[in-house]
Design a protein that fits this description.
This protein is of the alpha+beta class. It folds into 2 domains: 86 residues, Arc Repressor Mutant, subunit A (Orthogonal Bundle); 130 residues, MAGE homology domain, winged helix WH2 motif (Arc Repressor Mutant, subunit A, Orthogonal Bundle), CATH 1.10.10.1210. The protein is 56% helix and 13% strand. The protein is built from 10 helices and 8 strands. It has a 3-stranded antiparallel beta sheet. It has a 3-stranded antiparallel beta sheet with strand order 4-8-7. Helix 2 crosses helix 4 and helix 5 packs across helix 9. The longest helix is centred in the first third of the chain and has 20 residues. It comes from Cotesia congregata. This is Similar to Nsmce3: Non-structural maintenance of chromosomes element 3 homolog (Mus musculus). Pfam families: MAGE.
Length: 232
């Protein structure tokens, strides 16, 4: 194609064509980053992908969200602090998505145990929030950590994974209680999208060999979140 023809083609391209092209670049960037499970900042998308076209960010992200859903079956989640992460739209019982490595498999097992424990501590139909010491005590009882040692031969540095990596990946929210300065944990936004509470309740009910309905508070919480998901 001659330079003149290329110039004519570029001239003929309208705003919609340019937005589609930018959308494709953003999708490629998000998919490349998704394997880390860390959220992507809006500022990074503007800086590293959109560049001088950053003023079209909102329009481009509408295209990105729609295309990820229709073509890839992914859900683009916009969370606090102008961050984005991708989840599979298919609900995964026990996190069915196959891990890419042994390390990821180990981390997912630990993560499932932690999220299950937090959920089973629910006192009402809202997200359960637990004190850090309660979580460590739970893991000590499972012989995953000891009072003096958080390194495990299978899971690695358990406390570091929970307090740092799982928090950065948005599986957990870590905060401090104002009155006592205690560290608190609760389910993060990624956990709410990727892990089905019904799967957790099934898992626990099998361990105790009883119906899910026996766990009244947790069963009620599960139903509340199921209804909430249907409305979205």
């Amino acid at each position: 194609m001659s330079q003149r023809a290329r110039r004519q083609t570029a001239t003929q391209q309208g705003p919609a064509d340019n937005l589609d092209h930018l959308g494709s670049r953003v999708i490629k960037y998000l998919l490349e980053k998704s394997h880390t499970k860390y959220p992507v900042k809006a500022s990074d998308i503007k800086k590293y992908v959109l560049g001088k076209h950053a003023e079209h960010f909102r329009q481009v992200m509408v295209i990105v969200k729609d295309r990820l859903r229709k073509i890839f079956g992914y859900n683009l989640v916009n969370t606090t602090g102008a961050q984005y992460f991708i989840t599979n739209m298919i609900v995964n019982e026990y996190m069915k998505a196959l891990p890419r490595s042994d390390d990821e498999a180990k981390e997912q097992i630990l993560l499932f145990l932690v999220l299950s424990f937090i959920f089973m501590c629910a006192e009402n139909n809202q997200n359960a929030i637990i004190v850090e010491d309660e979580l460590w005590e739970f893991l000590i009882n499972l012989n995953i950590i000891t009072e003096d040692e958080s390194q495990h031969p299978y899971f690695g540095n358990v406390k570091s994974l929970i307090s740092d990596k799982f928090v950065k990946q948005l599986y957990l929210i870590k905060s401090k209680q104002k009155e006592t300065d205690s560290v608190l944990f609760e389910w993060g936004p990624r956990a709410n999208y990727e892990l089905d509470r019904k799967a957790v309740l099934k898992f626990v009910s099998k361990i105790y060999n009883c119906p899910m309905e026996n766990f009244v508070k947790q069963h009620k919480a599960m139903k509340v979140f199921e209804r909430s998901a249907l409305r979205e």
